[in-house]
Amino acid sequence: MKIGILGAMEVEVQELIENMENIKEETISSITFYSGTLQGKNVIVARCGVGKVHSGICTQTMILKYAPDAIINTGVAGSLNADLDIADIVISDNVVQHDFDTSAFGDPMGLISGINLVKIPCPKELVQKIKEAADTIEGTNVVVGTIASGDQFICSGEKKDFIVGNFDALCAEMEGAAIGQVCYINNVDFCIVRAMSDKADGSAHMDFPTFTQIAAKKSTQLINEFLKCI
């Protein structure tokens, strides 16, 4: 089984790359792809860049060039749920694009043109395997649910309420649903893993870099545990 792993920022994939063996590098469309083994499994790791366009380009390139059996997007997100604190983990069972809006034409908020879905589903078996790996990490609150993506850094209560009210999402970030859309179109399994780096309301602004490091390390730990058990 070959697993593709994507992260938007260097901090989200750096430790994974550093621990890979038999590593080969190739740069395509300004994105460096690292292929090799991690925890004895075949992997391709890439830093896609921030936002839906970057992540979509990276995902499609990875699929065409390396043909992974599944793609996991690891990283950090802003919590939209009062019960989710810094470094808690959300595993997607579906993803939505909260900024996709053709409601002026009578469509539901978030309906993606071309695939006619609001919530793009993740394969249940893959989600369950990642959840089982997450449950081995001590002292970590792990939940499964909707992850919302958009080309916006969410930092206001009003926007949080909008996303939760329309999509019942647990956390917000900027790449996962674009990755999910590309995988869905290509019939490639995917799942999004996010550790909470902030509360998406501006309250952690001054400590965001510190919290991001903590959260990214927790996501990396989960990926390693998942690879051990597949």
Automatic annotation (TrEMBL):
<dbReference type="GO" id="GO:0019509">
    <property type="term" value="P:L-methionine salvage from methylthioadenosine"/>
</dbReference>
<keyword id="KW-0486">Methionine biosynthesis</keyword>
<dbReference type="GO" id="GO:0019284">
    <property type="term" value="P:L-methionine salvage from S-adenosylmethionine"/>
</dbReference>
<dbReference type="Pfam" id="PF01048">
    <property type="entry name" value="PNP_UDP_1"/>
</dbReference>
<protein>
    <recommendedName>
        <fullName>adenosylhomocysteine nucleosidase</fullName>
        <ecNumber>3.2.2.9</ecNumber>
    </recommendedName>
</protein>
<dbReference type="GO" id="GO:0009164">
    <property type="term" value="P:nucleoside catabolic process"/>
</dbReference>
<dbReference type="GO" id="GO:0008782">
    <property type="term" value="F:adenosylhomocysteine nucleosidase activity"/>
</dbReference>
<dbReference type="InterPro" id="IPR035994">
    <property type="entry name" value="Nucleoside_phosphorylase_sf"/>
</dbReference>
<dbReference type="InterPro" id="IPR010049">
    <property type="entry name" value="MTA_SAH_Nsdase"/>
</dbReference>
<feature type="domain" description="Nucleoside phosphorylase">
    <location>
        <begin position="2"/>
        <end position="228"/>
    </location>
</feature>
<keyword id="KW-0326">Glycosidase</keyword>
<keyword id="KW-0378">Hydrolase</keyword>
<keyword id="KW-0028">Amino-acid biosynthesis</keyword>
<dbReference type="GO" id="GO:0008930">
    <property type="term" value="F:methylthioadenosine nucleosidase activity"/>
</dbReference>
<dbReference type="GO" id="GO:0005829">
    <property type="term" value="C:cytosol"/>
</dbReference>
<dbReference type="InterPro" id="IPR000845">
    <property type="entry name" value="Nucleoside_phosphorylase_d"/>
</dbReference>
<comment type="pathway">
    <text>Amino-acid biosynthesis; L-methionine biosynthesis via salvage pathway; S-methyl-5-thio-alpha-D-ribose 1-phosphate from S-methyl-5'-thioadenosine (hydrolase route): step 1/2.</text>
</comment>
